[in-house]
Amino acid sequence: MKALQEKARELLAAKTVQVVIGYGRGSGGVARAVFIRDAAQADRLIFDGTCLQNLAVYLMKPEVRHLGKAALVARPATLRTILQLATENQVMENSLLALVPSGEEIVPLATFAAIEAHVAAQDNDLSAAEKAELQKFAAMGLEERRQFWEEQFSRCLKCYACRAACPLCYCTRCTVECNQPQWIPVPAHDLGNLEWNVMRAMHLAGRCVNCGDCSRACPVGIPLYLLNQKLISDVFTGFNSRSGICAKSDNALSTFKPNDPEDFIR
Questions:
Q1: Are 147 and 75 within one domain?
Q2: What's the CA gap between 78 and 33, in Å, rounded?
Q3: Domain check: are 105 and 175 in the same one?
Q4: How many domains does the chain have?
Q5: Three-class SS of residue 228?
Q6: DSSP per-residue letters across 73-128
Q7: Section 186-201 average pLDDT
Q8: Residue 32 to residues 35, 76, 101, 200, 216: CA-CA distances in angstroms?
Q9: Could you tell me if 194 and 103 lie in one domain?
Q10: Which of the chain's ends, N or C, has fewer CB atoms near its CB within 10 Å?
Q11: 101: in domain
């Protein structure tokens, strides 16, 4: 923690960055995001087991971008998010500096190439526990799966906390906010809940980096991560594609190739 605070003070004092986005003490023993713009405030930064949020979500906020170049305290999923945002031309290389806590040291990653190398050295596959849960889910029959998700989505409040927490839900106007035509029903009823959650999952297919913030943000505990992990697994199996690995890559579900053997695409 001291190394992180010292690094933040150094960067801010030298004006290498204008803001350090990191974690601070929050209520209820939960860490919250803090935006340090003064070197004297660097001692507010913490990094421990409560620091779970994917802070890359703030990179897409206009009010944060206006602050200037940012140093971002980055967990593994945060680094993958930065690379995925780069492939979608949403972040520029010279606009941020990733700070990766590693033991008692802080590893600064200033370029996309450096982030790619760091990510490549990690195991970015689903964990054994996640794969076991997916296998259990895949073993369900279609009717059992339908009942499972109907029960889960029946609890949805349509609060859109999942959307707010997701760093890859950055559309300036979401589909649910379009009323001419009305694509997704507004009320929190069975049909609207199903359409909303399935639509969001499909918009993340081939893009989700499995940070889990959507599930952590859900006030009623819907296991949204399970949908996303299933799509991550399917996209990798079907297209040999994994998101958040490099700064320049094609999205598996939005790339057209003239020589694609699937004639129905043409």
A1: no
A2: 13
A3: no
A4: 2
A5: helix
A6: E--HHHHHHHHHHHHTT-S-GGGEEEEEEETTEEEEE-SHHHHHHHHHTS--SPPH
A7: 89
A8: 10, 18, 17, 25, 13
A9: no
A10: C
A11: yes
Phi, psi of 82, deg, nearest 5: -60, -45
User: Which carries the bigger pLDDT value, residue 266 or residue 19?
Assistant: 19
Q: How far apart are the first and last CA of the chain?
A: 55
Residue 233 is assigned to a structural domain of this protein: yes
Domain containing residue 68: 2-120
pLDDT in tens, 79-94: 999 999 999 999 998 8
Task: Name the pTM for this structure.
Answer: 0.92
Q: Does 47 share its domain with 69?
A: yes
- Distance in angstroms (rounded) separating the CA atoms of residues 94 and 68: 11
Q: Say which residues have a Cβ less than 8 Å from residue 33's Cβ, sequence separation at least 6.
A: 21, 22, 23, 24, 53, 55, 58
Alpha carbon distance 67, 125 (integer Å): 35
Task: List, as own/partner pairs, every contact residues 192-195 make where C-beta atoms lie below 8 angstroms and the sequence separation is at least 24, other chains included.
Answer: 192/158, 193/153, 193/154, 193/156, 193/158, 194/149, 194/150, 194/153
3-class SS letters over 29-68: HCEEEEEECCHHHHHHCECCCCCCCCHHHHHHCHHHHCCC
